[in-house]
Design goal:
Elements: E1 13-14, E2 18-22, H1 28-35, H2 38-41, H3 52-67, E3 72-78, E4 81-92, E5 105-111, H4 120-136, E6 140-145, H5 150-158, E7 162-172, E8 179-188
Parallel strand pairs: 5-6
Antiparallel strand pairs: 1-2, 2-3, 3-4, 4-5, 6-8, 7-8
Helix pairs in contact: 1-3
Organism: Paenibacillus marchantiophytorum
Domain N-acetyltransferase: 18-186
Pfam family, one: Acetyltransf_3
Length: 191
């Protein structure tokens, strides 16, 4: 199902309000800015990049993973403003997008709190799910969410993801070295 040449250039997705595009090192300050907010990192298994330079290195790494067909790392901006306000990461749980049959895909996302409760992330994820259906043909897309992250659970359920249960001590926080529970959610494509 995957279109030939899908990785020849980065796929830009647009919605009525948003542009999901490839990030570049010029976005590092914006990335660092929203990751520096504890409201963003409280539900992550790390504290985010520790500097603008770390943010640049992270963006370079994400773009290399795209070249290796292991990740679609979209940066979210408003159509009317190129400032990076969030990210959507879309990746196979193992291997690359070229493996057949395609393994489940994970989706992860962050958004600058200034843009919360405006339907931004729902709109961005709808575009990613539509892209997947049209160009990738993933049978299963899953997300791992901390149980206290009610907003992300609500967004995913609104888009049709179903809770499958709690994965106990599934992740380890990169900084605190504590084990964390997550709720596994998934959407199954039967078409």
């Amino acid at each position: 199902m995957m279109r030939i040449g899908l990785f020849d250039s980065f796929p830009v997705l647009t919605t009525s309000r948003l542009c999901l595009r490839q990030m570049n090192t010029g976005d590092a300050e914006d990335l660092y800015h929203f990751y520096s907010n504890s409201k963003v990192t409280q539900f992550l298994d790390w504290h985010g990049p520790s500097s603008v330079q770390d943010s640049q290195d992270l963006i370079v790494s994400w773009n290399q993973h795209f070249q290796d067909k292991r990740l679609f790392p979209w940066g979210i901006t408003m159509k009317t403003d190129p400032t990076l306000i969030g990210t959507v990461m879309f990746m196979p749980i193992r291997n690359t997008f070229e493996q057949k049959p395609l393994l489940p895909l994970n989706v992860g996302f962050e958004l600058n709190p200034q843009y919360w409760n405006k339907g931004i992330m729902s709109e961005a994820l709808e575009a990613v799910l539509s892209f997947s259906k049209e160009h990738i043909g993933a049978h299963r897309i899953q997300a791992e969410v901390f149980p206290d992250n009610k907003a992300s659970l609500k967004v995913l359920e609104k888009l049709g993801f179903k809770q499958e249960g709690v994965m106990h001590q599934y992740l380890m926080h990169e900084v605190t070295r504590t084990f964390l529970d997550v709720i596994m959610l998934a959407i199954i494509n039967n078409t």
